[in-house]
Amino acid sequence: MGLAAGSAAMGLAGRLGATDLAWPFAARDAEGGAEITVLDCGKACTISESLAGYESALRACGVPHRRVFDATGLTAKKLIVPAAHLSDCRALQRIKKSLARGGMLLFESGATFLEAREFEIHQRLMESEFGIRLGAPWQLWEGGNSARQTPYINYEWPAAAKIRDFSRLIPVDCEGVESIASFEDLTLAVKRPAGRGTMVFLGSPLGPHLLAGDREAESWFKQFCSSC
Amino acid sequence: MSRAEGGETMKKSIGDNEIPKGWSFEQGLELVKKAGYEGIELWLGDVPWFQMTTTDAQVLDLRRKVENAGLVVSNVSSGLHWKYPISARDPPIREEGIRILEREIETAHLLGPDAILVVAGLVTEEVPYNEVYNRCLEVLKSVAPKAAQAGVKIGCENNNSENKFLLSPREFLGFLKELNEPSVGIHLDVGNIHDTGFAEQWIEMLGPYITRIHVKDVMKKRGRCCDSVYTNIFLGDNNWKAIRAALDKVGYDGWLVAEMERRYGAAHDQQFYDTAAALDRVISNRL
């Protein structure tokens, strides 16, 4: 079964409650049965490697998980939204609602390679829907002398780790929220209450590094899954 | 406990093959200590006091001299495998290469360090890559138990374009995984990578397999036709901030061993002091 067809089948199974699909990724079938839900935003997932990376890491950790394609009516204990650039505020509101009963949302920004106008939309919506204020993207590797910099972001929560950047950094205003990752004096990831749950926002993609087999990224993600 | 919490910190050493010609071992040890190193790397076959003919009693005497000087042996290395590669087609040459490898293990056990360096494999026009690969696997597999018993790790050095073998970090990692011997890893040289890659990326990918780190800088744009591509730490094209951060990333807290292939033309002892000072900056992350 091809990946796309299999993914579609998984989404279908999620809606119909079907069981025991011939799916090699060991995702659980019954709605709400999976420990972690990964939201595939389709075209709004701007880095497909990221989605693949999270799923790969979840499989490697042996964490029961499922992929869904729509957050409508979703209630998830733990929801991961890889590399998302959702320009539809209703989609973001559906994600927010999934936290109505608590739980943890890991929202990874999909703004890394957006054009200026698209980034402004992303920036506006993240603030209006989640209260997350983003700064202008920072090009880490353009124009400077690479000998003067390191390629690692320092993560502090839930574990200390150095994990590579993904070329462009999206700084986050950490006023009133907990900073959990930074590059020099730029905050790149924060943790904050969202409804009855908690939101972790990543301004630098982690998913691609999970796919690339970065040991420290895998270890960090494992700790994240355990800490939720 | 992490370094940040006051745990283990990296230490620095330098090769005894850097001791100025004509100096005695004891004079060299005194210089190494005065310059601020914690250890010395002993090169089997490269220096008068440490040859294949050096007896066990004489090796123990070397250890005593090192310790009397307030130092320890960081590791045992050898350049003899350039002449006697363990991947040679000619059986007597290969056997000699194996014997050298075994002697490195034996002397490391006597001298104290838990690591040796080997130039594993030499690809030439005559001896092709695949043969070298298979022979290295076979030899290292056969010697690994002896190393494990001696409590010594075999660090295969990345010589990249010098020995034309295991040229990328992924290739090297694949080799070590295929070998699957806990007592065999990589003695990572951050200068030998030249312009074929980036040392910090090698560190990232090979982290848990690193036995020791050779430190030197490299001028990546310099061709290999005329003069050395190597230079003093901070004078070349290595990204030292990234290298240092990569060492933190993988949790490396072992030895940094200076291998200054480009020697000062005069005031040879000064290079020991300058290199030690540069290593201190790397270790303390003041870059």
Characterise the protein shown here.
The complex is a heterodimer of chains A (228) and B (287). Chain A is α/β, with parallel strands linked by helices. In chain A, the strands form two sheets. Chain A has a nine-stranded mixed sheet with strand order 2-1-3-4-11-10-9-6-7. Chain A is globular and about 45 Å long. Helix content of chain B is 39%, strand content 16%. Chain B is built from eight helices and ten strands. Chain B has an eight-stranded parallel sheet with strand order 3-2-1-10-7-6-5-4. A two-stranded antiparallel sheet of chain B has the order 8-9. The N terminus of chain B is likely disordered.
Write the layout of secondary structure elements.
The complex is a heterodimer of chains A (about 230) and B (about 290).
Chain A: H1 3-16, E1 36-39, H2 48-61, E2 65-68, E3 78-84, H3 89-97, E4 104-109, H4 116-130, E5 138-139, E6 152-155, E7 161-164, E8 168-169, E9 178-183, E10 186-194, E11 197-202, H5 207-211, H6 215-227
Parallel strand pairs in A: 1-2, 1-3, 3-4, 4-11
Antiparallel strand pairs in A: 5-8, 6-7, 6-9, 9-10, 10-11
Chain B: E1 11-15, H1 25-34, E2 39-44, H2 56-68, E3 72-78, H3 91-111, E4 115-118, H4 129-150, E5 153-157, H5 169-179, E6 184-189, H6 199-206, E7 210-215, E8 217-218, E9 230-231, H7 240-250, E10 255-258, H8 268-283
Helix pairs in contact in B: 3-4, 5-6, 6-7
